[in-house]
Amino acid sequence: MNIKFVNFSDGIHQFDFDEKIESLQWGESPFIGSLLAKVKMDKSAYQIVLECSVSCEAVLTCDRCAVDFRKRLDNKFVLTYIFTRDKINEDSELDVYYLAPEVTSINLASDIYDYLELALPLKTLCKDDCRGICIRCGTNLNESQCNCNQEDENPVWGPLKSLKNNLE
Ligand SMILES: [Zn+2]
Ligand SMILES: [Zn+2]
């Protein structure tokens, strides 16, 4: 995921990446398959601005039924690189980097990782209406019914049931 920007003239350049996740050296991660990235580079004498749009599949575990499933994640972000001879504290501003004059390329792998992580859902569900697991017998209720009294046991009905109890 390197952009060797010194090879390019000032102006706009487009890059398309299609990289195997294993080649990105992310170590253990939920991401699998290929990372697709479109990068628009706007290069000038003073700075480089990269508009990135990334897409990748992840293997996630459903919070409700504990089944692993694949989900496509997408995100967009802008990174700015300012050419400077001075050492500047990089913590000061988000997504702004400073490049010393001897630097010739930009590696995007770790920023892309961060933005894919941000695209992970807060609540991980295999589908919006996942029925979960019967807490009595462990049956995955998406796949089959069990013989337990589901009205009592399915946690989905818990809030409704307590509401009903309160009304009675
Ligand atoms: Zn589920
Ligand atoms: Zn059951």
Describe the protein in words:
With 168 residues, this protein is mainly beta. The chain folds into 2 domains: 2-118, no CATH class; 131-168, no CATH class. The protein is built from 3 helices and 7 strands, in the order E-E-E-E-E-E-E-H-H-H. It has helices at residues 109-118, 150-153, 158-167; strands at 2-3, 11-20, 31-43, 47-61, 68-83, 96-99, 106-107. The strands form 2 sheets. A 5-stranded mixed β-sheet has the order 2-3-4-5-6. The protein has a two-stranded antiparallel sheet with strand order 1-7. It binds zinc ion (2 copies). One zinc ion (ZN) binds at residues 134, 136-137, 139, 146, 148.
Q: Give the tally of β-strands.
A: 7
Q: Tell me the span between the first and last alpha carbons.
A: 62 Å
How much of the sequence lies in strands comes to 35-45%
Number of helices: 3
The main sheet comes to:
5 strands, mixed
Number of domains: 2
Helix content: 10-25%
Low-confidence stretches: none
- Could you say which small molecules are bound to this protein? zinc ion
Record the strand order, biggest sheet.
Answer: 2-3-4-5-6
